[in-house]
Design brief:
Layout lengths: L36 H10 L5 H11 L14 H6 L9 E7 L5 E6 L5 E8 L4 E4 L3 E3 L8 H5 L1 E4 L2 H15 L5 E4 L9 H13 L8 E5 L5 H6 L6 E5 L5 H7 L8 H15 L3 E7 L7 H10 L6 E6 L13 H13 L3 E4 L13 H9 L6
This protein binds S-adenosyl-L-homocysteine.
Length: 372
């Protein structure tokens, strides 16, 4: 888990996108969460209500955080009662834990009983939410707690948006940034992720530039994403400076070679005009040697990229080691000497199962104590 990735700057004129984010809408209602104003207006009219009630409903869902239609006190009593069971699509808070640095981890229970993880990361002027895009993950990266548990299912659009509203309501502060760095691989659930990004942007008002979608790479999907011309930041979890090292950490890399991943990234930058953030988890004695830093700098030559170095956060199942601050500094300095923009990401909430999927994993083991 992490702070927000560095913001991207445009570096070339983007090509006109063939698809529009505004068209990424839930196919049917209810649940109502994730729906646009226009969709809610159509929906209320289908319930024999005037169109302006759609506007009211939008406000009550996204600003007042209703959990059931019956809570909308401005609606006629009779309709409220008859529609009381219409699902809004909110989750139940299952577990909450706050770290000393203010980071708050949440486990949310979904309608089918599945549990998903979200994290709120307050910093000086920002509130970042790290959201999950799937229950579990199929990518099985060797250092990742979520990967160890396997894939369960995709999250629907409303289940992603709900995570953001939950953190916003709990911390009583507007969410400013979103990172898709929780459980799951967003590009394997691209349709729902795009719907959620639309809703976060248009319904909740979070700027696209403040949204980061993190991927370990799925063949064909980076170019698919580029076709939406998003202003969001793409973060690519690289983790290694060459193919053989990467294959050891990221099993899916066997089917998506580094050269192809990098050429897709170059194409993405050319098409969208957006800079890419590369994530590099630093594992002591494994991918943190000076030659790896030089190799990484070579790989990113001519790329206006930003590298986020992420010190490994230990998980139970594997025995990688966290690098020392000195090792990290040496790695960072080599990148900087090669004119590669890079920074070390501070691990937040380390005292409480900080990394991706760790909280859920440890809670499932312990048979979690419920909040409510
Ligand atoms: N599947 C996507 C999104 C998941 S978030 C992706 O791979 O990008 C993945 C991020 O979680 C990684 O880039 C890494 O920054 C972080 N992460 C996962 N396990 C970690 C661990 N044990 N220690 C530190 N960071 C970890």
């Amino acid at each position: 888990m992490s702070n927000a990735a560095a913001p991207s700057r445009p570096q070339s004129k983007p090509v006109k996108a063939p698809h529009a984010l505004s068209e990424c809408l839930p196919r049917q209602l209810p649940p109502l969460l994730g729906a646009s104003k226009a969709q809610l207006s159509d929906w209320v009219q289908a319930q024999q209500q005037p169109a302006y009630r759609g506007q009211q409903l939008h406000q009550w869902i996204y600003q007042k955080g209703i959990r059931a239609l019956g809570e909308v006190t401005v609606f006629p009593k009779q309709w409220r009662e008859s529609a009381a069971d219409v699902p809004v699509g909110r989750s139940i808070l299952h577990y909450r834990s706050e770290a000393r640095d203010g980071t708050v981890k949440y486990l949310l229970q979904l309608a089918d009983g599945q549990i998903v993880e979200a994290v709120g990361i307050p910093t000086d002027r920002r509130l970042t939410v790290c959201v999950s895009s799937q229950v579990g993950c199929a990518m099985a990266c060797d250092f990742c707690a979520t990967g160890k548990g396997g894939f369960v299912r995709h999250l629907a659009c409303h289940e992603i948006v709900d995570q953001v509203l939950t953190v916003q309501e709990d911390l009583k502060e507007r969410v400013s940034n979103i990172v898709f760095m929780g459980m799951g691989e967003p590009l394997l659930n691209l349709e729902n992720v795009l719907m959620a990004v639309r809703s976060l942007n248009e319904d909740i008002g979070i700027g696209q530039r403040s949204i980061t979608i993190s991927t370990v790479g799925v063949p064909g999907r980076i170019s698919q994403l580029a076709d939406y011309g998003l202003q969001a930041t793409l973060a690519v979890s690289l983790h290694a400076s060459n193919q053989s090292l990467r294959e050891q950490l990221v099993p899916s890399a066997k089917h998506y070679r580094l050269e192809k991943l990098m050429s897709d990234c170059r194409q993405y930058v050319a098409q969208t005009g957006r800079r890419i953030t590369f994530e590099y988890i630093v594992l002591a004695g494994f991918n943190d040697k000076p030659e790896h830093a030089s190799e990484l700098a070579q790989l990113l030559r001519g790329f206006q990229a930003h590298v986020n170095l992420i010190p490994y956060n230990p998980i139970n199942e594997v025995d990688y080691q966290r690098p020392s601050p000195q090792q990290l500094q040496i790695f960072l300095q080599i990148l900087q000497r090669h004119k590669v923009a890079a920074s070390v990401r501070q691990s937040r909430g380390l005292d409480r199962d900080a990394a991706c999927g760790q909280l859920r994993a440890s809670q499932l083991e312990d048979n979690a104590v419920l909040v409510q």
